[in-house]
Amino acid sequence: QVQLLQSGAEVKKPGASVKVSCKASGFTLTSYYMHWVRQAPGQGLEWMGTFYPSGKSTIYARKFQGRVTMTRDTSTSTIYMELSSLRSEDTAVYYCARGPPLGVTTWFDPWGQGSLVTVSS
Amino acid sequence: DIVMTQSPDSLAVSLGERATINCKSGQSLLYSSNNKNHLAWYQQKPGQPPTLIIYWASTRESGVPDRFSGSGSGTDFTLTISSLQAEDVAVYYCQQYYTTPLTFGGGTKVEIK
């Protein structure tokens, strides 16, 4: 079955970077748009950006441009999201999610289980 | 950016009663080229990721009970749970996928009265 398995929780200091992984199974990663969405504690959902199936393009939310990098390793069917210059406001659960092969502008289904990133000095 | 506004923030409904959640978008989500509303609904239970329940504003995802229904067009949308069950206690989010940045409503918490 389609599954997205994310890496474990991380604790980082302000100014550091974090790289979260999302391993896909049950489908061909290179055929789908893959998204990253985050959720701060007790807050709502925030789209961060999308990695295109071609592997050649990404689109990032304006808020994260310059700080976020999304990549993919097709040999391990894994996508990555790296966020740099971390600050306390980046403390959140980070989700990867698949979109149907209709383009960037779609719904998200399924979602990974989430990876908690805590930024604290 | 398209702002999505949900109401109410929370609601308490008796078991077996109807729950209605509203979502209003800052601009029309009706795409002229396919005549579809680019809106989805998600359910999120505590400690779990969101799960898709409705897309194209009214298409129920496979496996979702038929007590869940979506309606609306343009800028005003509704998620209805026709007969609330205990397992429906969750936070519900709407999401527009008309354009980037993809944006979500603030969420509506549904509880049992």
What is this structure's SSE topology?
The complex is a heterodimer of chains A (121) and B (113).
Chain A: E1 3-6, E2 10-12, E3 18-25, E4 33-39, E5 46-51, E6 58-60, E7 68-73, E8 78-83, E9 92-99, E10 115-119
Chain B: E1 4-7, E2 10-13, E3 19-25, E4 30-31, E5 36-37, E6 39-44, E7 51-55, E8 59-60, E9 68-73, E10 76-81, E11 90-96, E12 103-104, E13 108-112
Parallel strand pairs in B: 2-13
Antiparallel strand pairs in B: 1-3, 3-10, 4-5, 6-7, 6-11, 7-8, 9-10, 11-12, 11-13
Give an overview in words:
The complex is a heterodimer of chains A (121) and B (113). Chain A is an all-beta fold. Helix content of chain A is 0%, strand content 46%. Chain A has no helices and 10 strands. Chain A has strands at residues 3-6, 10-12, 18-25, 33-39, 46-51, 58-60, 68-73, 78-83, 92-99, 115-119. In chain A, a hairpin with a 6-residue loop joins strand 5 (46-51) and strand 6. Chain B has strands at residues 4-7, 10-13, 19-25, 30-31, 36-37, 39-44, 51-55, 59-60, 68-73, 76-81, 90-96, 103-104, 108-112. In chain B, the strands form 3 sheets. In chain B, strands 2, 6, 7, 8, 11, 12 and 13 form a 7-stranded mixed β-sheet that branches. A 4-stranded antiparallel β-sheet of chain B has the order 1-3-10-9, with no helix packed on it. In chain B, strand 7 (51-55) and strand 8 (59-60) form a beta hairpin. The mean pLDDT of chain B is 98.
